[in-house]
Amino acid sequence: SPEWGPLQFGFTHSYGSFAGGVDQYSHLYKRGPYQKTWHRNDRYTEEEGHATDLIAREAIRWINNATKGTPWFIQVAFTAVHVPIQEPEEWLLPYAGKIGNESRRRFAACTTHMDHAIGELVSALKRTGQMDDTLIIFTSDNGGSGPWAPSGKYPGTYLPSPVLGNNSPLRGRKGTVYEGGIRVPAFIHWPAKIRGARTLRHPLHVVDWMPTLLALTGYTSTPELSFDGVDVWPVLSGLDRSPPPRTLYFKRGDASALRHGNWKLVTTGSSKTELFDLSRDPHEMSNLAPGNPTQVARLRKLLTRERARERGASLPKPFSIRR
């Protein structure tokens, strides 16, 4: 709802969808109290056009109007590649005869459409002379989805999507705590600070971006604001090549997972326990729990601690940041 919009949490401008994946043309979400969701500055609005194009256009306008030498931040939250998948013919044509499955072809078109839009943002940065001094972060929010069929929750008429994302060779998909559900593509690009390309071997989490960006910009948070994440710039920049093991906690329904270093514990209710060594088995094919009771007990203790922290956590509140 608008009273929970971005302007209540430190942003000076907002645009797009309050909810998740929307109808790309009507911009409506699922039937119910949050169906109307397209907004500008936390007020509902109506516009014509494909959501990917509209979001890119708004971001490019922001980049073009940025005052040179004045720091700025923009979060560009595309609804792609979320269902419902609705792509114009121009994005489907390149895959005609190349991808046999019609559903997968539409998913590829949706991905390419978003990729093109991101390219337009990069072109705007180059055109305005801001490329070298701009830190670009790209990240997804979860692993690829399984099959989707229209069920009447959305207000339009859609084709089913029996094939969407493909997490192979990782196990699981969106909605699971296996690597296929929680490991996502991400990269950073900052020509002025990072030279060349390299692959990071240490696990990071989306909650790390907030403290990292605050540290980079020289801001400190108000005392009541605490973070689940950590400043990972030393790791990203290569200054720290041997960080200590992270403890990462994930939960979905009655399934939980805890990762500490390369060890990962997965529990489902009270009946199933799995243990994986991700350094040797990133695809989570071999359950080592039966032969490693000490390691299971150690990770269960950490899992109990994280669950206690979760129960003690409060809902986010509007906050301010100061220099």
The coarse silhouette is: globular
Annotation, overall tally of beta strands: 11
Strand content: 5-15%
Structural class call reads alpha+beta
Task: Explain what the structure shows.
With 323 residues, the chain is of the alpha+beta class. The protein is 25% helix and 14% strand. The protein has seven helices and eleven strands. It has helices at residues 51-65, 89-92, 102-127, 179-182, 209-217, 233-236, 293-312, and strands at residues 15-17, 38-40, 43-44, 136-139, 186-189, 220-221, 247-252, 255-260, 263-268, 272-277, 321-322. The strands form four sheets. It has a four-stranded antiparallel sheet with strand order 7-8-9-10, with helices on one face. The protein has a three-stranded antiparallel sheet with strand order 1-2-3, with helices on one face. It has a two-stranded antiparallel sheet with strand order 4-5. A hairpin with a 2-residue loop joins strand 7 and strand 8. Helix 1 packs parallel to helix 3. It is globular and about 60 Å long. It starts with 14 loop residues before the first strand and ends with a strand.
